[in-house]
Amino acid sequence: LTSTPTLEWSYMASGSPPASWTVISGQTTTSLRYAIANLPGEGDYIFRAAVPTEDIYVDFDVVISGIPAPTATLVAPTQASPSCDMPLDASGSTDPSDAALSFSWSCSVPVLAVDSSALEAACNSVVNTTAPSFTISGGSLDAAVYTFTVNVSRSDAWS
Question: DSSP letter string over 44-65?
Fold first, then answer.
């Protein structure tokens, strides 16, 4: 080759069948800048720079790991009366790569409570939602100390 060729960049997960190459459109130069958020998840990848007209290619092994986790933000009262509605809101949570987020809620009761397992089961049935925010209706839980937890994760494979 006497001139700088036009390249075709592609990638696939290591160990994938040869037909599973994904072409990276719009990348034809000798260097590649590709946002890792565009990949399906952490793992081992092979990136290929190919000169399609000459059947020449170079493969690069790349390991993707340590993607920053989303930041969970919870807005909720620190205490409430059992007869009052109690909003729990994690909709202000963010992801550094702007990925869509998933939410999983749970509830626990200190073992010191008289019937902590029954209270916890009742509480978890109330918080059984994947919504970023919801309201616990007044009167739906007995008077007790509850700890509400929200797990915020990416909706894609980077979770």
Answer: EEEEEEEETTTTEEEEEEEEE-
Percent of the chain past pLDDT 70, that is, above it, reads 94
Please name the residues in contact with 41: beta carbons below 8 A apart, sequence gap of 6 or more. 64, 156, 157, 158
What CA dihedral angle connects 60, 65, 68 and 69, to 10 degrees? 130
pLDDT in the model for residue 135 = 94
> CB within 8 A of 98, min separation 6: which ones?
37
* Gap between the Cα atoms of 73 and 92, Å rounded: 6
pLDDT (tens digit per residue) in 73-107: 999 998 888 899 999 999 999 988 778 899 999 98
The whole-model pTM stands at: 0.60
CB distance 64 to 39 below 8 Å: yes
Q: Position of tokens 């990848």?
A: 45
Tell me the C-alpha distance between 110 and 130, whole Å: 24
User: Bridge-partner residues for 105, per DSSP?
Assistant: 150
